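subagent[fold] <- orchestrator: predict structure for attached chain, return tokens only, no commentary.
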Amino acid sequence: MTSWDKDDLDRFLATHTLRHPDYYMVRSTPTLLEFMDHRVSKGQGIQRLCERKGIHPAQILSFGDELNDLDMLENTMGVAIANANPLLFEKTRWRTRETNNEDGVARFLERYLLNR
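subagent[fold] -> orchestrator:
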């Protein structure tokens, strides 16, 4: 097995795409690709849970840092972590001040709950 760095993966993605009706590909870290069944994603999981519980996804607060979180963040009250992929900042209403390693989710929740 060969190990690729970010530049290797960038070069690969510049010339390759996945064209398959049943699967999609998402970059979940700078050096990792996920290949997923088109019927499965974090956002779809939340949608199904909301249907079962009778709540609207807009009532869900979700946190993410990579592109595999995008559909979840777009369909809930999405929060991008401070060290998230920059594309997520364009798609979310909020972002944490702190990174994952600085307890960004906990600090955001403290501020969010205190201001309600």
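orchestrator: received. Logging for downstream: DSSP finds five helices and five strands in the chain. The chain has a mean pLDDT of 90.
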